[in-house]
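Tokens for chain A. Residues wanted.
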């Protein structure tokens, strides 16, 4: 009966291909939208980093909490197929709403390129995000379980392979979208004023979501649709509640013990339900340690990207920006899943080792723990090259002579002589309370004391020029520039104001003998123009920087040549990153191998160990571990700032190792079951019982009931 209905293809039901295609489009849509979200918050709404990150993480956590809702709707009310269709419609609407929210011409009535009422846009995008979280979360547990439902009994091997292909589709979708969506964002568009094209970057995911919905509905005739079996969850909750209450009532020694605490529900609930709940409880118990894996896994996007920002992105002829390193994970998944499935697992089986699901998951945790050890080693290498910044009540001073005479500077315990247009080699560190006196002079001029207050925890540049003038500038840069960009500032030695325009950014009105603030630029050669009323018209105003790398900072001094034209000289403030980003590949490789054996296996294990009426519920339980992992990261990042980053990596690695050992011990005591067999057994028993009721003489077979 089953075979005639579902047409096959390579031994797989044909319907599977629609489900996989649907998942691919959905993930492309989700990751494409999520990838530009932070930038949309910071650039379009002009929110600061902290608010943007908080909203972003809340959204991600929501996306992993809503699956419980989706699973409940599917398993107890609409069934998986209808749930997927209706929530996909919600999802598509959400995507459309957020792309409309990013059209600045919506409220920009005076056409100046900025929306006149931001709250409208913010409100719309929050509504959009809420709908998306409901949609993506709600269909997540249903799609994978619905795929598993398409297989017949005895197709375990194909079903396991399906979960791998399914996971491959997830990562192929996310990989393509992380490459394509940023390209869409850089396009310019707009009716009255041109600007970064968020409507297009959000609109493409919305369109793909619609495509994914259509693809899914086209396959409708081929699917095996199992009917939902009443409100499972409320039954489960009532049964557990009754068992606990009943156990508590019979707590005295007079009553005989029962094998399992759930057996105390026998007075009121049938054995089948009790045995189903036992299956779910045993799996849920195994899930308790798992969020720790996700806590490490989810730091790729945050901590590891920040680590990449302190590294050099020149890998051979390629130039890689720090946030592009995350695609390494998706690329490796697409390569590793087939290798594990087709090569590694069969090899291990040939060697006669029984590599069960739970053993795979234990190995996955161990590999993730190793990945963090690798990250710590890379961090130690980076720390060797990082400049020292002032801590606590330290301050740092560097002296830059911008005049035409030699200057003498005496600092506590140090005497420096600087030629014209030269600087001290490094920043000198002083305790702000023990900073006695700094004096400057030039040959034949009196000594002048520097009386400025220095800000603790900051770097300062002391600009000096003859005969005894000075200015203290607070650098405002007490860490490596973010995102691997380069900080550039200008010092004006002309008498009049000068304005510099560099690659689209403007340093307006830098006053005489003063420094501008830093502005930040990605790697490459940048052109800049200098303009001032003091510069003769025949001068060449255009200049180029030398090749900027990653994470450096420079001061350019602008001074007058003999013919009155400007010339520039650069001074290094912070040296460029030297540790190569390629060194991050081992940790990505280890984490990805861990993910393949942990995550794919977890999906498949959750499906195979769940009773038929609770497949989606267990998938949601699995996704819940991801949500809890995300929350752990938020807490750890918020609570403990461990001063040394490598120590934090080692701490996480150690925590996961401990959890891994606990999990291995728990897994030893887990026995695998086949829910379908157990349920078939109950069906058979019920048949016999009904036969006995109708035919009292049919007693012979009743005594020899097969043992469970």
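Reply:
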């Amino acid at each position: 009966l089953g075979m005639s209905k579902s047409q096959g293809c390579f031994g797989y039901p044909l319907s599977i291909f629609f489900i996989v295609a649907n998942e691919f489009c959905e993930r492309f849509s989700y990751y494409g939208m999520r990838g530009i979200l932070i930038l949309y918050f910071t650039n379009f709404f002009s929110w600061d980093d902290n608010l943007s990150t908080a909203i972003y993480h809340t959204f991600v956590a929501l996306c992993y909490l809503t699956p419980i809702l989706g699973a409940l709707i599917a398993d107890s009310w609409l069934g998986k197929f209808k749930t997927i269709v209706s929530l996909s419609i919600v999802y598509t609407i959400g995507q459309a709403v957020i792309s409309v929210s990013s059209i600045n011409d919506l409220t920009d009535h005076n056409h100046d390129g900025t929306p006149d009422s931001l709250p409208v846009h913010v409100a719309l995008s929050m509504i959009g995000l809420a709908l998306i979280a409901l949609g993506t979360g709600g269909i997540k547990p249903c799609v994978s379980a619905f795929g598993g439902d398409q297989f017949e009994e005895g197709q375990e091997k194909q079903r396991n392979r399906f979960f791998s292909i399914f996971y491959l589709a997830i990562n192929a979708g996310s990989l393509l979208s992380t490459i394509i969506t940023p390209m869409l964002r850089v396009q310019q568009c707009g009716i009255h004023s041109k600007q970064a094209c968020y409507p297009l970057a959000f609109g493409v995911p919305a369109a793909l979501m619609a495509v994914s919905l259509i693809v899914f509905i086209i396959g409708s005739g081929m699917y095996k649709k199992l009917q939902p079996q009443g409100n499972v969850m409320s039954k489960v909750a009532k049964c557990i509640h009754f068992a606990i209450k009943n156990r508590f009532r019979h707590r005295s020694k007079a009553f005989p013990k029962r094998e399992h605490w759930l057996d105390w529900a026998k007075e009121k609930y049938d054995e089948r339900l009790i045995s189903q709940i036992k299956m779910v409880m045993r799996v849920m118990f195994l899930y308790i340690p798992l969020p720790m894996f996700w806590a490490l896994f989810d730091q790729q996007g945050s901590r590891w990207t920040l680590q990449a920002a302190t590294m050099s992105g020149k890998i051979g002829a390629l130039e890689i920006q720090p946030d592009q390193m995350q695609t390494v994970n998706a690329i490796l998944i697409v390569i590793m899943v087939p290798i594990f499935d087709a090569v590694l697992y069969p090899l291990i089986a040939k060697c006669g080792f029984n590599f069960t699901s739970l053993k795979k998951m234990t190995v996955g945790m161990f590999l993730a723990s190793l990945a963090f050890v690798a990250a710590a080693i890379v961090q130690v290498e980076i720390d060797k090259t990082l400049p020292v910044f002032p801590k606590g009540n330290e301050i740092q001073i560097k002296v830059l002579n911008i005049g035409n005479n030699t200057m003498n500077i005496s600092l506590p315990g140090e005497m420096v002589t600087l030629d014209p247009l030269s600087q001290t080699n490094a920043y000198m560190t002083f305790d702000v309370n023990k900073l006695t006196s700094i004096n400057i002079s030039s040959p034949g001029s009196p000594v002048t004391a520097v009386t400025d207050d220095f800000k603790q925890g900051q770097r300062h540049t002391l600009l000096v020029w003859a005969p005894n003038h000075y200015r203290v500038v607070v650098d405002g840069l007490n860490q490596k520039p973010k995102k691997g960009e380069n900080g550039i500032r200008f010092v004006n030695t002309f008498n009049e104001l000068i304005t510099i325009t560099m690659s689209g950014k403007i340093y307006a009105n830098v006053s005489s003998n003063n420094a501008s603030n830093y502005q930040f630029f990605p790697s490459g050669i940048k052109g800049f123009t200098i303009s001032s009323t003091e510069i003769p018209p025949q001068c060449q105003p255009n200049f180029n920087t030398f090749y900027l790398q990653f994470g450096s900072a420079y001061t350019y001094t602008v001074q007058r040549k003999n013919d009155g034209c400007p010339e520039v000289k650069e001074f290094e403030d912070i040296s460029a990153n030297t540790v190569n980003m390629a060194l991050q590949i081992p940790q990505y490789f280890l984490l990805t191998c861990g993910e393949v054996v942990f995550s794919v296996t977890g999906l498949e294990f959750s499906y195979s160990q769940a009773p038929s009426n609770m497949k989606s519920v267990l998938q949601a339980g699995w996704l819940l571990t991801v949500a809890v992992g995300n929350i752990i990261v938020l807490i750890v990042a918020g609570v403990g700032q461990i001063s040394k980053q490598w120590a934090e990596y080692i701490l996480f690695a150690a925590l996961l190792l401990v959890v891994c050992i606990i999990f291995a011990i728990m897994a030893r005591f887990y026995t695998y079951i086949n829910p379908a067999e157990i349920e078939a057994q109950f069906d058979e028993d019920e048949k016999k019982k009904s036969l006995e009721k109708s035919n009292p003489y049919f007693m012979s077979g009743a005594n020899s009931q097969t043992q469970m």
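Confidence is low (pLDDT under 50) at residues 1-6, 700-708. Residues 170 and 641 are 34 Å apart (CA to CA).
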